[in-house]
Design brief:
This protein is of the alpha+beta class. Helices cover 33% and strands 27% of the residues. The protein folds into two domains: 141 residues, 2-Layer Sandwich (Fructose-1,6-Bisphosphatase, Chain A, domain 1); 110 residues, D-Maltodextrin-Binding Protein, domain 2 (3-Layer(aba) Sandwich). It has an eight-stranded mixed sheet, with helices on both faces. The mean pLDDT is 95. Its EC number is 3.1.3.25.
């Protein structure tokens, strides 16, 4: 790893170590976002503060977009996209699928991304055009390739759900159509970790209504560099309306299953 990726990986590791060291037995929410169950903890904010401080120290002219702190302007072509804890509810409950996600844009294009799935000791990393790797302490780097040649009927599909009741009602309706047509469904609770699961072949595909840019910026690059296709409906880029990810072939099958269900609606 060099340049942006090396810096992002070092910061993501440091943030992860801080979160593990400071996490109480049961973290408490300090505020909410879209609903009473969509929570923020003090450590979400502490993690983003740490990440922003390290970016400022190394590259003071760069912009930063963070889930908790919004956007800070920069002086050049580079912007960092930060989710300090993706999977905050998992973090609160002590479940293993939460992560620190950091992506780097140059002129609006994501060129590097890391996702540190902290409880699992797994750091996923990718550079544009350079492939994707899984890094684990004491082990050689593992080159990532998504599963290919899997038909929809035998595909293990990850998904997630929003926090507002009206959105969940539609997502349940969509899921009822999808579930009989795939091998099975998995719900991990972190968009970034789910995209890395596609990249590593732990699931075959992923779809979800609702993830924001900071949720999928780094994980999307990692999945793409592992051979997956990522996007939205009808040729649009991935977006909060709907994000899909799978190997070519399965991507199109999953898209064509979802599109008639109007999965971007909330009621």
């Amino acid at each position: 790893m060099t340049g942006f990726l090396d810096l992002a990986a070092g910061i993501a590791r440091e943030a992860g170590e801080m979160l593990l060291a400071k996490r109480p037995a049961r973290p408490e929410a300090v505020s909410t976002k879209s609903s009473a169950t969509d929570v923020v903890t003090a450590l979400d904010r502490a993690s983003e503060d740490l990440i922003r401080a390290r970016i400022r120290a190394a590259r003071p002219g760069d912009a930063v977009l963070g889930e908790e702190g919004g956007e800070s302007a920069g002086e050049g072509r580079v912007r960092w996209v930060v989710d300090p804890i993706d999977g905050t509810v998992n973090f609160m409950y002590g479940l293993p699928d939460w992560c620190v996600s950091i992506a780097v844009e140059v002129d609006g294009e994501i060129v590097a991304g890391v996702v540190n799935v902290v409880p699992r000791g797994e750091l996923y990393a990718a550079e544009k055009g350079g492939g994707a790797e899984l890094l684990r302490e004491g082990l050689p780097a593992e080159r990532l390739r998504c599963n290919t040649g899997v038909p929809l009927s035998r595909a293990l599909i990850a998904t997630g759900f929003g926090y507002r009741p009206e959105r969940r009602a539609v997502q349940a309706e969509v899921l009822a159509h999808v579930l009989p047509r795939v091998r099975d469904i998995r719900r991990g609770g972190s968009c970034a970790a789910d995209l890395c699961a596609v990249a590593s072949g732990r699931v075959d595909g992923y779809y979800e209504r609702g993830p924001e840019y900071w949720d999928y910026a780094a994980g999307g690059l990692i999945a793409a560099e592992a051979g997956a296709r990522i996007g939205g409906l009808d040729g649009r880029p991935c977006n909060p309306g709907l994000t899909l990810c799978a190997a070519p072939g399965l991507f199109e099958e999953l898209h064509d299953l979802l599109a008639p269900l109007d999965p971007e609606r909330d009621t």
